[in-house]
Amino acid sequence: MSEQTPGTQEREVDVVVIGGGSTGENVADRAHRGGLGEVVVVEDELVGGECSYWACMPSKALLRPTAALAAARRVPGAAAAATGEVDVQAVLERRTSFTSDWDDSSQVEWVEGAGLELLRGRARLDGERRVVVTGADGGTTALVARQAVVVAVGSTPKAPPVDGLDGVRYWTSREATSSRSVPPRLLVLGAGVVGSELATAYRRLGSDVTLVAGSAVLSAFEPRAGELVADALREEGVEVVTGPRASSVERDGDEGEVRLTLDDGRVLVGDELLVATGRGPQTGDLGLETVGLEPGQALDIDAAGQVRGVDGRWLYAAGDVTGLAPLTHMGKYAARAVGDVVAARARGEADGEPAPWSKHATTALHRAVTQVVFTDPEVASVGLTAQQARDAGLDVRVVELDIAVAGSSLQADGYTGWACMVVDESRSVVVGVTFVGQDVAELCQSAAVVVAGEVPLDRLWHAVPPYPTISEVWLRLLEAYGL
């Protein structure tokens, strides 16, 4: 049923993109570059989205200064100059500079400069090809898409079933990355990427941090990666609690101390509680029921990014909202694919199938996902873990070793690192790689080329790593494999 009310403006446009984060921006840009003139981006918060203001950029800005200081302290000659304490206020100010103090003017300028239209407001689907946008003043605009509607609304934090949690004030990643001060005591519930990174950041900025990790730190990664990060956190002074689960929470008023009770009876006390127990697709109030889909669920897409279960080949999705590879860079990749497909279909190309190049999107989004965890040590991973490869029925051989090459010894005294290569023996190709260690983030792209490109191991041997760099670990992995 239409949501149109008296005073609603109705317009027909080529493409409506719901969500003005990095994924939505890239969908819109590619569709417009592909020849579609009227592309409207709808956003009800800050243009640029979660990554720009509350996730990737501010969190890494909080982490980088103390990581640089720690790295200097590991190198004799530089260590003597790195004896002072971190300037917390300067760190917070630099973080704020990366968010433009939560002002999206520059992002709006980019959208308009790219030839796109920005419409501020809350968007909901209202039947086939129709999107109703409600502005801050209560006015509504109905957009009807000639070619496509693309959903790129991202994800939202999920709260665990802990008694009392819904009645207390707590931090999500948004509050943690935008805080103007450092709490004396911080409780972190959840030790995935967000929990581990922010536990690292706030401990180094001066908080007494307790990390309630559940089963393990970074449990979605290779077990050894999580163990090394947990060891490093403990060495930093973080109390890492594994095993017991949170059972209840209470707080003295809005600003009083937080008491988190575990199921073993232990009570943890802090000044702030960060809940970092995962995220889910932000589809609860999107109007999915008007097109026959269930609200609150991830949008199931095909290789072209088209949403399954909706007739007419007009509804697409990209990024976190699909539940696939919920990472900024992967969302932007998927966005480019979707934008190109929408434009190609509008031109009458690729009528029955996705655009020819997009056949590789399945590999990128399912089997060659890249990710870096900016703890210290860093964790860089591409593709499948050993267990995931076994679960997929692959004939798996795992090669793992400590990173101990000339490049790592030059990088830091006492360098601690680990590498793991997962090989599909039936095809003699690498299907997963994990690196753990200082500065291994820059090894991620080489691993991505190896995994996504399905480079045969005998060919990989001839990709000679430069000396002396940490990338020499590739040579050690191949030698350990037996090449």
TrEMBL record:
Cofactor binding annotation: Binds 1 FAD per subunit.
Cofactor list: FAD
Gene3D superfamilies noted in UniProt: 3.30.390.30, FAD/NAD(P)-binding domain
Binding positions for FAD per the UniProt entry: 60, 320
MF GO annotations: flavin adenine dinucleotide binding; NAD(P)H dehydrogenase (quinone) activity
Annotated binding of NAD(+), by residue: 190-197, 278
The UniProt record lists the keyword Ribonucleoprotein: no
Pfam families, per the entry: Pyr_redox_2 (PF07992), Pyr_redox_dim (PF02852)
Residue stretches making up the Cyclic nucleotide-binding domain: 217-288
Disulfide bonding pattern of the chain: 51-56
Keyword Coiled coil part of the UniProt annotation: no
SUPFAM superfamilies: FAD/NAD(P)-binding domain, FAD/NAD-linked reductases, dimerisation (C-terminal) domain
Keywords: FAD, Flavoprotein, NAD, Nucleotide-binding
Family of the protein in this entry: Belongs to the class-I pyridine nucleotide-disulfide oxidoreductase family.
Alphabetized PANTHER family for the sequence: MERCURIC REDUCTASE
Name of the protein described by the UniProt record: NAD(P)/FAD-dependent oxidoreductase
Originating organism: Pseudokineococcus marinus
